[in-house]
């Protein structure tokens, strides 16, 4: 575990992430911690790709060219080289480092678009700097140990740990990246190369949002002694509790790894139980065919908060190694118990038979029994609801206070 003491002076913090526009959970994370760290008196700048919707940046106005792997164009011919080692990213971050002169560099998602080339430039900056400079990384997923970042074979649905033992060729065998042999080969080359070079030993500390993820990383010798678990933050303000209504909620992505197919089997077996699904994804058409499921589409903000707080309980049926899902935390702090899959970091957030129930991931019969039990036991459900309203996770301010302690290792 990383050693922690308290930092009392103003810091200059460079937050690095490939996307600097709203795109997903890791982007929400960097925007929120950046804003909070500024409010706490520190100077924060950002480095990543240029994009028309970019909302944060750096004073040097130095960013890499936007790379979109899902569109065509002759520029994609160079992508196989750029996703392994980006000379552009290395040169652009050098400009920012020398202009801003940060005390702390906090990496987030960087593989493929920025590449580990930036780590070598950061190492050079640390060596030549006349002050103590520290390099941190938040592991939002499994990108350090798995080329497709999920430790899951997408097209078989098998959770896979082969790459933890250095078997990156398995990525090619199973076409783990976009079902493409070529992309999987490139991902395998990148993973194997930086593993052999021990590039990631340059991190001073790896921040893991779950004990589960930390345990996986600690199996790799280069990460031993460099990890610490810090669960995600969640906004628990204004959660006085709305009047409960009789429906069960799922909110999140509509995809197989989220356990949607398993959940739909259960929904069909409970035709008198109303379900609401809020989200979007490739399984939307199948969801719309189930009569007792109302699909309200993607929701956010106060509309989503109201949906969560009024639900009898929510379901989190994931079938992959979830890290520290915000959805589970959001449900609990809004006073809504969770029936969650016993996989990944989910059991770290739900206390079984206190603020929710755990079921065997992928087991439709077990999920059916847990839903039916909670739906038909009002006293038990009320007890869980009261416990949820008492439960606390770190606020953003509390999280950043812990982050500042970690920064000063």
Strand ordering within the main sheet: 2-1-3-4-7-8
Question: Structural class of the secondary elements?
Answer: alpha/beta
Low-confidence segments, given as residue ranges, are 3-7
The CATH homologous superfamily of the largest domain is called: Glycogen Phosphorylase B
- From the spread of the alpha carbons, the general shape counts as globular
CATH architecture of the largest domain: 3-Layer(aba) Sandwich
Oligomerization state of this entry? single chain
Mean pLDDT: 91
Beta strands, count: 14
Number of domains: 2
User: What is the distance, rounded to the nearest whole angstrom, between the alpha carbons of the first and last residues?
Assistant: 11 Å
Tell me the strand percentage band.
5-15%
Q: What's the CATH topology label of the largest domain?
A: Rossmann fold
- What is the helix content? 25-40%
- Determine the number of helices (DSSP H or I, runs of at least 4 residues): 14
SSE pattern, N- to C-terminal: EHEHHEHEEEHHEHEEHEHEHEHEEHHH
* Most strands sheet: 6 strands, parallel
Instruction: Provide the gyration radius in Å.
Output: 22 Å
């Amino acid at each position: 575990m990383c050693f922690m003491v308290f930092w009392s002076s103003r810091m200059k913090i460079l937050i690095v992430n490939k996307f600097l526009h709203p795109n997903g959970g890791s982007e929400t994370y960097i925007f929120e911690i950046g804003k909070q760290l500024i409010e706490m008196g520190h100077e924060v700048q950002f480095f990543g790709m240029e994009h028309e919707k970019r909302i944060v940046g750096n004073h040097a106005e130095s960013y890499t060219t936007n790379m979109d792997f899902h569109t065509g164009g002759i520029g994609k011919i160079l992508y196989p080289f750029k996703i392994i080692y980006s000379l552009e990213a290395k040169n652009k971050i050098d400009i920012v480092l020398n202009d801003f002169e940060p005390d702390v560099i906090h990496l987030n998602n960087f593989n493929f678009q920025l590449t580990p080339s930036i780590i070598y430039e950061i190492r050079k900056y640390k060596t030549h700097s006349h002050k103590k400079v520290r390099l941190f990384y938040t592991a939002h997923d499994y990108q350090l140990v798995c080329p497709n970042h999920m430790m899951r074979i997408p097209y078989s649905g098998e959770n896979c740990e082969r790459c933890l033992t250095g078997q990156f060729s398995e990525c090619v065998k199973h076409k783990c990246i976009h079902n493409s042999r070529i992309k999987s080969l490139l991902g395998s080359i990148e993973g194997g190369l930086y593993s052999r070079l021990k590039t990631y030993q340059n991190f001073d500390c790896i921040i893991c949002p779950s004990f589960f993820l930390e345990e996986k990383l600690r199996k790799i010798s280069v990460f031993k002694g460099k990890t610490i678990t810090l669960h995600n933050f969640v906004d628990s303000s204004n959660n006085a509790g709305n009047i409960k209504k009789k429906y069960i909620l799922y909110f999140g992505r509509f995809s197989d790894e989220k356990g949607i197919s398993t959940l739909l089997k259960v929904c069909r077996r409970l035709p008198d139980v109303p379900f609401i699904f809020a989200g979007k994804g490739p399984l939307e058409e199948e969801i719309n065919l189930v009569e007792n499921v109302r699909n309200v589409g993607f929701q956010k903000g106060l509309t989503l908060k109201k949906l969560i707080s009024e639900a009898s309980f929510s379901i989190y049926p994931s079938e992959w190694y979830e890290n520290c899902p915000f959805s589970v935390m959001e449900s609990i702090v809004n006073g809504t118990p969770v029936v969650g899959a016993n996989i990944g970091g989910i059991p770290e957030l739900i206390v079984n038979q206190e603020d929710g129930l755990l079921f065997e991931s992928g087991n439709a019969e077990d999920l059916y029994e847990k839903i039916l039990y909670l739906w038909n036991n009002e006293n038990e459900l009320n007890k869980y609801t009261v416990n949820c309203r008492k439960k606390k996770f770190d606020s953003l301010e509390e999280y950043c206070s812990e982050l500042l302690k970690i920064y000063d290792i």
